[in-house]
Amino acid sequence: VRFVQVNRGGFDTHSNNFEAMRAHGEIMDPALASLIEDLAASGLLEKTLVLMLSEFGRTPRVNENAGRDHHAKVFSCFLAGGGVKGGQVIGSSDKDGVEPDQRPVKPYDVHATVCHALGIKGSKEIMTPLERPMRLVREGGEPVKELFV
């Protein structure tokens, strides 16, 4: 199989954020750890890219329902394998988690990074099912090169 996508719904934590995130962690942490350990043990981790992300970030401020609302300016993603050098944090937010601060990475940079890891030219244009040309990576998107060995 060349590509696998796993969806886990329920990350829209507008209320009871802390309880929901604890429950997600109890499932996601061991699942990701097992996946990466198994891929490493079988020798497949170097040629398999593991990417975990959400649709966007969560506000740094807790709302009146003990939740965190949509926040597109700051988000996190996780990459392992596929030539990625582990143990790094790339980019940061300001002290309040409101704005990107050091080494901001845009969503289209994440797309470019995935293409880079998979050996795909990000500027490639494909035809959608509606016969519209679509570029794989938005112009200006650059791979996060410091992730790679």
Quaternary state of this entry equals single chain
Radius of gyration: 17 Å
Based on Cα principal axes, name the global outline: globular
Strand arrangement, largest sheet? Answer: 1-4
What proportion of the residues is helical, as a percent range?
10-25%
Strand-residue fraction? 5-15%
The helix/strand series, from N terminus to C terminus, equals: HEEEEHEE
Structural features:
149 residues; alpha+beta; two-stranded antiparallel ribbon; two-stranded antiparallel sheet; 2 helices; 6 strands; 13% strand; globular
Blueprint of the fold:
Blueprint: H1 17-41, E1 49-53, E2 57-58, E3 70-71, E4 77-81, H2 107-118, E5 125-127, E6 133-135
Antiparallel strand pairs: 1-4, 2-3, 5-6
Account of the 3D structure:
By secondary structure, the chain is α+β, with helices and mostly antiparallel strands. The protein contains two helices and six strands. The strands form three sheets. It has a two-stranded antiparallel ribbon with strand order 1-4. The model has no long low-confidence stretch (mean pLDDT 92).
Summarize the structure.
This protein has 2 helices and 6 strands.
